[in-house]
Amino acid sequence: MKNIIVGILTLFIIALMALTAMRGRAYHGGEQGKVIEDIAGRAAKSSQMEPASKDDREIEQDKLKALRDKAGNVGGFKVSQSYKSKCASCHGMNGAGIIGPKLIGLESDDVYKKLLDYKAGRKENLVMKGLLMKLNEADLREFADEIGEFESRAKALQQ
Asked: What is the CATH number of the domain that holds 131?
């Protein structure tokens, strides 16, 4: 008896599948099928128009590249990659200050003492403490020496 029921259900399902296939594409995705065809048609049309706007894109890409190059050299003098990654976002590429205070013109010993204070928590600044937490005193000294040279580097560029 089970085999008869399974056989009848199988034939019924196959008949439904054949009926769906014969009825056409409305049963193959309905409105979604039409939307997909519309998108494909629009993509073909836009790919035909692309060469005309490609020149504009190239011009914009050139302008963006020029801006990136200029932004990378805004400080005028070279700074270390460590300074760029840890300090420049707040203090600027040349130490002129953006969000953080101005560093240019400070003595290296003063900067070193301040860095130690930030690291030890004697001066409150969570951003500075977080940045300096994993650095040792030699790294802090390198930062301080580099920052202490900013003023002389800037003067050398002006001459």
From this structure: 1.10.760.10
* pLDDT digit string, tens, across residues 123-159: 888 888 888 888 899 999 998 999 998 888 888 877 7
Number of domains in the chain: 1
- Does a structural domain hold residue 129? yes
Return the higher-pLDDT residue of 68 and 12: 12
Cα distances (angstroms) measured from residue 22 to each of 73, 112, 141: 68, 83, 81
d(CA 78, CA 8): 83
Structure tokens at 60: 């914009």
Q: Is residue 30 part of a domain?
A: no
Q: How many residues does the chain have?
A: 159
pLDDT in tens, 39-54: 666 655 555 555 555 6
Domain that holds residue 93: 81-158
Neighbour-count burial of 111, counting CB atoms closer than 10 A to its CB (0-12 exposed, 13-18 middle, 19+ buried): buried
